[in-house]
Amino acid sequence: MEEKQIRFTKHCEKRLIERGITKNIIYHCLIKGELKGILEQKEGFKSEDKYRIYYEHLDNKVYDIIIIISLETPEKHLISVVTAFIQKKNRRVKK
After folding, report:
1. Where are the domains of the chain?
2. What is the spatial distance between Cα 88 and Cα 13, in angstroms, rounded to a whole number?
3. Dist. CA 77–CA 93, nearest whole Å
4. What is the pTM for the complete model shown?
């Protein structure tokens, strides 16, 4: 995957600024990051293919970066980043 295949919604761009997450962090996660988990988004969404994907935070291993993506054109490998946020890793890792 390359940066040119990743698009950001206006909602996402606004939320990234509010949450102190840069596009470079998102690019890094999606292109080079190690995927820690993925869930299909169903409730509250239209029929689009949307997924919640989990990556370990780059600087603080206590947190994950959660990225919600939509597959715009799967055959061309284009994705749209709907939103992203940080949450404690223990929400993903159950002991």
Report:
1. 3-90
2. 22
3. 29
4. 0.86
